[in-house]
Structure formats: structure tokens, C-alpha cells
What does this fold into?
Amino acid sequence: MKKVILSTKAPAPIGPYSQAILAGNTLYVSGQIPINPQTGEVVSGGIVPETKQVMENLKAILEEAGYSFADVVKTTILLEDLAHFAQVNELYGAYFPTEGAPARETYQVAKLPKGVAVEISCIAVK
It folds into this structure.
């Protein structure tokens, strides 16, 4: 059985997908981009504020489902430029426990929705 998760503290989906799907005890969170959920606009200022907004959007969705970053087992990071990797990695790492960080991969991609620099998705399990 699957349950759709929708948080008003994260941006509404901009296409035919859900913010997250809970299937059994596994939560699949769609890729989040740096949209401020209050304004519906992409945050400005570069990779640091973009990454922070993405992580806050993920946090809101995880919390809506009763999960936290401690429950995340896998992430995927998409970057428009791998030159941003160190900055993204530092901000990203601050959201996870020191031990037991999730498995992940990071890719540089040609283009992301709305021209953003970063998108992150995750899978969490309880």
C-alpha cells in the first residue's frame, strides 16, 4: 500500500509527481530544487542558499511523513557544475548524523528544472 506525502512547508510539485511516496516503511522523496515554499520562487544568491533551501525542503517532507535525516539511507545529488561539490557537500553533511551517513551519488548534469544549480532526492527507511 502506498501513501502520498504532501507538506505545505515544501514547494508544491511542478509536474505530475508527488513530493514523496510512503510504501510500507520506505519513503521515496522526489528531487527537490531550491524553491521557497512561501513565495514559489527560486532562491537567489548562488549555490550556498540554493543548497540550504533544498535541504530545508527535504527536511519538511521527511518531517511531514514522520521521518528525519537520520532515517535517510540513500540520496542522489544533481549539480549543474561539479565545481560546487565542496560547498554542497559541506552544507549537506551538516544535516546528517556524523556516523551512518546515507549512501549517495553525485552527478553533473546539463540542465536542471527552472535553471537551478542543485537538485537532491532521497530514500528513507524506518
About this structure: The chain has a mean pLDDT of 97. The two ends are 16 Å apart (CA to CA).
